[in-house]
Amino acid sequence: MKGVVFNILEEMVISNEGMQVWNNILQSQQLEGIYTAGDSYPDSELFALVNEISAQTGVPCEKLIGHFGEFLFSQLAERFPMFVDSKSDLIAFLRSVDSVIHLEVKKLFTDPSLPRFEYEDLSDGRLLMRYHSPRRLCILAEGLIRGAASLYKTEIELEHEVCCHKGDSHCDLIVRIIE
Ligand code: HEM
């Protein structure tokens, strides 16, 4: 994962828990905690940090990753406003993640670790985002989608029955807009 993701995780922990807790987390994992935005660091380091944050704060990992996804979205939107300004509504925005936003991310960063999304329009205006990634960060994807919904001031319901953590080869994230 890119250093920018670690930078934003650090920001979230420091703003919610304080600098001392972040320092304790780094210390117990014997990590220096210096991450350059555009450099890549092992995914295992991110997972170790998340496990340790969960252990030190008592927040279960899944909840933590979901919250982090929402925070990550707001921070990415601030750092890269040009990617989120161009779409008029949430569904158009979500449809642009794979072919526009992450494509731009590939131009900006060397070898980013990105998921692949396939899209399908379902009945009642629901949007299916089929998530494929060896990192299996579907809960992070859920949080990012919730973060986007909040930016677009749109209330949504997310369905996530088909899941790579239940033995499926991918995850089906179904977004329904609550009118
Ligand atoms: C709802 C919108 C979005 C969704 C669902 C989404 C999904 C994801 C997920 C799940 C990952 C983790 C990697 C993986 O699962 O394989 C990821 C990574 C990433 N995404 Fe997105 N993303 C969204 C919007 C954005 C935006 C607006 C940016 C702005 C630049 C962005 C930039 C990145 C970057 C930099 C990474 C990390 C790449 C790396 O560490 O190598 N994404 N995205």
What fraction of the residues are assigned to beta strands by DSSP?
5-15%
Task: Indicate the structural class.
Answer: alpha+beta
Poorly predicted regions: none
CATH superfamily of the largest domain: H-NOX domain
Helix count, DSSP H or I runs of 4 or more residues: 7
What gyration radius follows from the Cα positions, in whole Å? 16 Å
For the record, the count of structural domains works out to 2
Q: Please name the CATH architecture of the largest domain.
A: Alpha-Beta Complex
How would you describe what is shown here?
- This protein is an alpha+beta fold.
- It has 2 domains: 3-59; 90-177, H-NOX domain (Alpha-Beta Complex), CATH 3.90.1520.10.
- Helices cover 54% and strands 13% of the residues.
- The chain has 7 helices and 4 strands; from the N terminus they run ααααααββαββ.
- It has helices at 3-17, 19-28, 43-57, 61-79, 81-84, 90-108, 138-151; strands at residues 116-121, 127-132, 156-159, 171-177.
- The chain has a 4-stranded antiparallel β-sheet with strand order 1-2-4-3, with helices on one face.
- Strand 1 and strand 2 form a beta hairpin.
- Helix 2 (19-28) crosses helix 3 and helix 4 (61-79) packs across helix 7.
- It is globular, with a radius of gyration of 16 Å.
- The model has no long low-confidence stretch (mean pLDDT 96).
- The structure holds protoporphyrin IX containing FE.
In short:
With 179 residues, the protein is an alpha+beta fold.
Pick out its properties.
4 strands, alpha+beta, 7 helices, 4-stranded antiparallel sheet, 179 residues, binds protoporphyrin IX containing FE
